[in-house]
Amino acid sequence: MLVPITNAPRDYAWGSRSLIAALQGRPEAADPEAEIWFGDHPSDPSELDDGSGLTLDRWIADKGAAHGVDGRLPYLLKLLAASSVLSIQVHPSKAQAEEAFARESQLPEGAARNYADDNHKPEMIVALSDRFEALCGLRELGATRRLLESLGEAADPLRRRLTDQDGLAAAIGWLLSGDAQEVVDAIVAALADAQSTEFAAELANARRLAFWYPGDPGVVVALLMNYVVLHHGESVFLRAGMLHAYVAGLGVELMAASDNVLRGGLTPKRIDVDELLRILDPTPGPVPVVLPVSAGDGARGVEAFPADVPDFALMRARVSGASPAVIRPSGPVIVLATQGAVVVEGAGAAVELTPGRAVFATPDEPELRITGEGEAFIAQPGSADAEAGGRATAAA
């Protein structure tokens, strides 16, 4: 069964007044539009796009079982639009979330908590804008030392701590603890005159972060992270323990259905330094960029973004003329249009989608045909052995 769904944009302060509006062909919004959620997450479930006001979680509870939907969706699909940086953050593994959620459930009522559920939150974002900026993972230590040298003596107390990855983790804790505020302030002041051919983009980004969050130690934590610019169709996959922050741009985001976030700067919200360090993976390395690959089985016009998780798989269909994409679902599917106009056809029904509109397809649909002229992203559960991509073919 095909169920058209919709949702209202969430107005977080870091959102954009223009990016989602332009995608949907609307005038610039009066307030920031940060995210549109497509799914049944209880914090903001989609509504059926029929004016009834019925939410997708209620529809699934009432009618899902009859159409092969077994409980809540394991994933959440979003449009994300950032005009300023999101908080630096990290997400737990499944085992860490289960242990911590059970531990916090024993706390007295009103006590501060870090965990909203017992699930992990791996996530992937694909750039829709021509330029999507992000901070992803911790930079290789030798390169970070060279960057810090461009800041002169102000950065020496930090640079001396970066002996290995354990020192890197300890340095992050030191910066966020409040004990390093004089060093943070000195490094931020040194940004004004710092020059580096190798790290010009990183320094420019840090100056922008310092303007948005003056005095925040997250500005210096960001100097330890990989800065990356994605172009349309490029993606990053963020595994458990990887420090990250989206900076600016429009993208399609797919994640496990969880609210578990540990913050590490660039935010007025609570930061639990000890818990952040407990789940942080301090292994430095390159940006985990994911490029689309063929979805297999001789598919044409259908690409997969590989992610080694069972919760979700993400594909993209780009259709034109007489060559439809054919998707054989591995579970409940959400199709979200992002360019042009596409038609999603099931068994005896069809739904036309324009950018920013979506349809939920139940698992009893043997196949979905996507036709028209445009681009659409397809979210579904990952395979049981955590091989992403689903099963897709293209028919003539």
UniProtKB/TrEMBL annotation:
Active site: 263
The enzyme's E.C. designation: 5.3.1.8
Keywords: Isomerase, Metal-binding, Zinc
Gene3D superfamilies per record: Jelly Rolls, Phosphomannose Isomerase, domain 2
Top-rank taxon, per record: Bacteria
CC cofactor: Zn(2+)
Similarity field: Belongs to the mannose-6-phosphate isomerase type 1 family.
Protein name according to UniProt: mannose-6-phosphate isomerase
